[in-house]
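Researcher: Last one for today. Full complex below.
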Amino acid sequence: MTSTAVRTGVTTPAPSRRRRRGGGAAERLWQASPLTYVTLLAAVALSIFPLYYMFVIATRTNDAIGQTPPPVTPGGEIGGNIDRLLGNESAAFMTGLVNSAIVATVITVFVVFFSSLAGFAFAKLRFKGRNGLMLGILITMMVPTQLGIVPLYQMMYEWDLHNKLPSIILPFLVSGFGVFMMRQYASQAVPDELIEAARMDGCSTFRTYWNVVLPGLRPAIAVLGLFTFMEQWNSFLWPQIALGDPTNPTVQLSLQRLSQGYYNDYSQVFAGTLLSVVPLLVIFIIFGRQIIGGIMEGAVKA
Amino acid sequence: MAVQSSTRPEVAPGQRRGGSQLPMEPQRSKGVLGRLDIKYSPYLYIAPFFVVFGIFGLWPLIYTLRMSLYDWDLGSTIETAKFVGFDNFAMFLGDEDFWNSVVNTLAMFLMSTIPQLILALILANALNKRLRGRTLLRMGVLIPNITSVAAVAIVFTQLYNRDFGLINWFLGFFGVEPIDWTAHSWSSWVAISSMVDWRWTGYNALIFLAAMQSIPRDIYESASIDGASAWRQFWTMTVPMLRPTIIFVTIISTIGGLQLYGEPLLFTGGGNPLLGGSDRQSQTVTMFLMEQFYMKFELGRAATVAWLLFIMILIFSVINFLFTRSLRSADGKAKQRKAVKR
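Model: Here's the assembly. Have a good evening.
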């Protein structure tokens, strides 16, 4: 689909919206009936309920689990539960939080930088083999990464990187999806005239990228950055293999250890899950609109 | 009806940008440095992807194939490992436990994907109306997607707890005896599929919503004038026009669903979660891979399972493709028939 098709796709509803005000049979079609609201509110309630339940249990003592009917309001025990969690050496929860923050941040910065640079090259520069190389990147998106974990582990072992953070950072510094997304966005959002003008002024290609293209890519960078951060914060299988040392986990590994070793101390485990979700919830509440826009635009462009 | 084909979102990317002009072309007015910059720096800019992917993506992939042909333990090297050809593959194809993990994976994949797609379509259709609090409703259905696998699994495992779980408590009102959800295959499938559904339905609904918004609304107006009900319009117009997006979502769900790992692992808990319970009730293929790798240290066999998993994904992608092609041709025939009638 070309970029023009995307635009027509997005803008076509506009004229009919004007027409709709006139009324008629189609008017009714887009009106939200009470049933629509009931459906959506039920979906939202189901979406939020497990998170709310997690919050309730995390703020109560352990006997809350066995109560019938189950408690529906938060209690006042969150402080004690968190104290117990942070004092739990075998879970190393604080280390996990810090490790995850470091890993997700470093990867996000690199993915955004490398993806926007490559996306700029693919969208705006001419070089031999450009289309073939882009196709190659698209193909890499189809290959499941889990396939290579066995030799990857051996590599990390030989380079003495296992149990260290670089082992879970290095393999994810680039993203085929990121390059593709940036290329799509750059080819539409950055006008050729702007790049032409920069070239006339004697800018090198890198300065053109830095001063002209990068600012134009800002919305796409925000979305890619958020997705990458969330994905890395939540990653599970590879960290489990690469970080076998229980004293140096990511937050997800620490949660796993908690849930398996301390399954009787529900409020401690739930306090941990709550703390692991809070950073993402904060990001989601602040940037929710952009995240939704990113998912929907990505869907139309993909 | 001819209009919509150009506005319909397509799945296959990568075949665009034919003869468009590119501004950064080699020019004479530049100095030597400028010319070198324009000619070679594009390669420099795309190099990081290929270098990192080559080392950490492609090389392990190729090496996995090689390892799968050896009896390779922890500490083996290419010199000390014994070449066994396709013995590993043959062994697993006759291995009950392997097939058990395949059945579990496929069951959970189907039980999570089908309801998920239907629910997502219904939700997207509701979100496509004119609504108050549009952004809040969209955020509300997306919120499960930002929760981590571990958190989802821990909370749901508690909800499905035999003695204190809210789900058994709720079912109790209908006279259902408490179910030990982790004890059987079918019940584990239900529980684990529900986690996947909870996490992904809203996300897929937003993707469908985006595609629905690119359908021109005029065609609905004419259908309404012809007296087609909203329900009929949804099934005979919206859904067929979303087909490319449905295919896209199905393929993504296939690749993700066949690699299911975190949810069943945490759901199983207990002494050895990698086995998926005492009777391997909820062991998926990826868990089986990890059993070979992390419990038995049979790296060659783990590599074999990785390839078998990859082949499985390929087979399902081909099935998807053929299925959609048959859909497309059936649709084409329907259109032809309509044209003849007119």
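DSSP finds 14 helices and two strands in chain B. Chain B touches chain A through 120 residues (CB under 8 Å).
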